[in-house]
Amino acid sequence: MCKEAQIFVSSLAKKFPLLAKAFAEHLQDNNQILPHILMADYCRVVLNTDNTDAWVVSFLEELEKSISLDSDNSVSNLIAVSFVEHLPYADEGHWIVDRGSSGV
User: Fold this and answer.
1) Alpha-carbon distance 3 to 47, whole Å?
2) Does the chain have fewer CB atoms within 10 Å around its N or its C terminus?
3) 25-52: per-residue pLDDT in tens?
4) Which long-range contacts (CB under 8 A, 24 or more apart) does 11-19 make?
5) Host H or E run for residue 54
6) How far apart are CA 67 and CA 78, in angstroms?
7) What is the C-alpha separation between 45 and 15, in angstroms, rounded?
8) What is the pTM of this model?
9) Where are the domains of the chain?
10) Distance between CA atoms of residues 82 and 35, nearest Å
């Protein structure tokens, strides 16, 4: 288990209060931080959020800022595998996909 990824998902819950509930439930269910499972939980929170919530933009910017081109980076791997891979396909018509393609 990578400490860097654990620290990253923990910091997201502190920085974005709407993720705190998912973080607390995760700890209660698992008695430890499992970064990939928790990041997938965060993805579900974001996908169930209204696209007008300003924190979502800040959250997505935080993820983008945290991605590295280093293929061995645990945080980048976490974001790619457990957040990006859980996003809907372009033809599913979800607002988060439209946001990404319009550059907004």
Assistant:
1) 26
2) C
3) 999 999 999 999 999 999 999 998 877 7
4) 12/42, 12/59, 12/62, 15/62, 16/55, 16/58, 16/59, 16/62, 18/45, 18/49, 18/53, 18/55, 19/45, 19/59
5) helix 54-66
6) 9
7) 15
8) 0.85
9) 3-102
10) 9
